[in-house]
Amino acid sequence: MACVIAGSAVLPELSDACTRAVYLGPDNMIVTGRTMDWKEDPHSNIYFFPRGMARRGAETDNTVRWTSAYGSVVTAGYDIGVCDGMNEKGLVANLLFLAESDYHRSDDNRPVMGLSIWTQYVLDNFATVDEAVEELGKELFSIVFC
Asked: How many domains, the chain?
């Protein structure tokens, strides 16, 4: 564990990506940590959102639309993208970013979801990890960088 902590102190200088570390300990103990390896202060703010909010995945007609089933508390970077959060059922979601990621498929006509709201979508719609994995595995929308 000490090596992971020591290594993560050096990584922000070497990487333009977020990182997650998971420690599996005795008695099914799981400890996770994540970095926000950003070159500048994202001016993060914390927001509380009630359930029942109408949402959309992007500023386009071909987007995912939903009404939040769960309230949440989130951290937003630059006041435009939800980075981390927890909903009222205890589900936690974190957005990891890698600049080299490419989500585009040229022949894709599925509704779009902005990367900046994906975390909020997960918190709004799912109570458990199993629910989220099952639904997101269907790939009913495509992710766009916005």
From this structure: 2
